[in-house]
Design goal:
Layout: H1 10-27, E1 42-47, H2 83-90, E2 107-109, H3 117-130, E3 139-144, H4 147-155, H5 162-185, E4 189-193, H6 202-210, H7 216-234, E5 242-245, H8 247-256, E6 262-266, E7 289-291, H9 299-315
Length: 318
């Protein structure tokens, strides 16, 4: 069953509800056996362009997806939020990259466009220096990476064997798990998403049609699966510290039963991050397509990821 996005206006009500539950437990003299909802005091985002807003002096950054426009046709970074914006909004937080009202940012985005797993390791180290190598137990980190690794490995085929590439994908998954575990050791709570299969993307469909040596979409799926399996096995399997978002299952379910959703082509006619609702294929919106371009999520895709992540952040016994 597809999980549809919550409207942006709902995030404050969700957060207020969580706070009310926490207050009720406290009023009842809540013991250690009672569940107290986790309320983050800061949010830190790590990963690749799925979690990026570009820097902007006006605090109105662009996303590597489909940018929303205001009534005057100008980009408004608060529209069509990326998943980490939505997670931050759950607690009433904004990042500096999307802060046109000049609020105090309590969401810190370390994710970078084009980042691979080795880059994420450096992102974590930079964040550790910012907090003097100690996060608080109310600091929430989000993590999603691996797409650029899988695409890099796929580009090596057939010069390198399928088995060698799968082994390297497993190694990258283990390396990302180490970065997640490092955040836990530094004191953070982490919501980490596995990687939606690159074999579902418009890029994969084009590669399948272009090459006859092997099913290229299947190869991209296998590389993604190898990465995800090791990520899932090697992260600290303790819900008090880590919540795993199974985005791959969700995106596969959508691809299998898309309904009227376009899951085969990207919606953008210009390259991200310059794509907006004014530069889409005829009849498209941010929510008619799963993909913005050949490999990046649309507003709909981002909203699916956001819903899963918010559910995990709200339900995990952090």
């Amino acid at each position: 069953m597809i999980l549809f996005r919550l409207a942006r206006a709902q995030w404050p009500r969700v957060a207020a509800g969580l706070l009310a539950v926490a207050a009720l437990l406290a009023a009842c003299g809540g013991s250690t056996s009672q569940y107290e909802p986790f309320i983050a005091e800061r949010v830190f985002a790590f990963g690749d362009e799925t979690s990026v807003l570009t820097a902007s002096p006006a605090g109105n950054g662009l996303r590597y997806s489909i940018n929303g426009l205001d009534d005057d046709g100008n980009v408004d970074c608060r529209l069509n939020p990326i998943w980490v914006q939505s997670v931050a909004s759950l607690y009433g937080f904004v990042p500096a990259e999307c802060n046109p009202n000049g609020l105090q940012p309590k969401a810190y985005f370390f994710a970078e466009a084009g980042a691979k797993v080795e880059d994420v390791t450096r992102q974590v180290e930079r964040a550790a220096l910012l907090v003097d190598r100690r996060f608080g137990d109310k600091d929430l980190a989000t993590m999603l990476a691996g797409a650029n690794d899988v695409l890099e490995l796929y580009a090596r085929y057939p010069a390198e064997s399928r088995d060698a590439l799968l082994n390297e994908a497993r190694s990258r998954g283990r390396q990302l798990a180490l970065a997640v575990n490092a955040l836990v050791k530094l004191g953070a709570r982490v919501v980490v998403s596995d990687l939606p299969s690159l074999g579902l993307t418009p890029f994969a469909r084009k590669e399948r049609a272009l090459h006859t040596d092997t099913d290229r979409a299947a190869l991209l799926t296998d590389l993604t699966t190898a990465f995800n399996e090791q990520l899932g096995v090697k992260i600290l399997l303790d819900g008090r510290y880590i919540g795993l978002v199974q985005a791959d299952l969700q995106f596969r379910a959508i691809a299998d039963n898309p309904g009227s959703l376009n899951v085969t082509a990207g919606a953008c006619t210009v390259a991200v991050p310059l794509c907006s609702t004014a530069t889409l294929v005829p009849g498209a919106t941010a929510f008619t397509h799963l993909w913005a371009d050949d490999t990046r999520m649309s507003g709909f895709g981002q909203s699916q990821l956001a819903t899963l992540a918010i559910d995990r952040a709200s339900r995990n016994p952090f």
